[in-house]
Design brief:
Blueprint: H1 3-7, E1 9-11, H2 12-19, H3 23-31, E2 38-40, E3 43-47, H4 48-56, H5 60-71, H6 77-88
Helix pairs in contact: 2-3
């Protein structure tokens, strides 16, 4: 296996250095599936290319916000919301203010 290929597989320490984050943060987020990595025989391994792709991918919150912004000027949105709440059998706004 070439040196270039080996450098593509990062240890926890390497990944933390690359991402400029504490090792504990990388380990916790990898364990939650938030950062791409694999735990092999008790040690974490990360593909450099997977981390680079992960950094390029917008997070879910950004995607949702951009989609919400796209709907802001949609004239049918108010009618759609009314239909949704009518189907649920409850008002859009809680009359008790809760």
């Amino acid at each position: 296996m070439s040196t270039a290929t080996l450098q593509q597989v990062l240890t926890l320490e390497d990944a933390a250095t690359f991402l400029r984050l504490p090792e504990a943060t990388i380990e916790r987020r990898a364990a939650l599936g938030e950062i791409p990595g694999r735990k092999i025989q008790g040690t974490w391994r990360f593909l450099l290319s997977a981390l680079e792709d992960w950094l390029r991918t917008p997070d879910q919150r950004s995607v949702l916000l951009s989609q919400a912004g796209a709907l802001a000027d949609d004239e049918s949105l108010e009618e759609l919301l009314a239909q949704v709440y009518a189907a649920r059998g409850r008002p859009e706004v809680d009359p008790d203010g809760a």
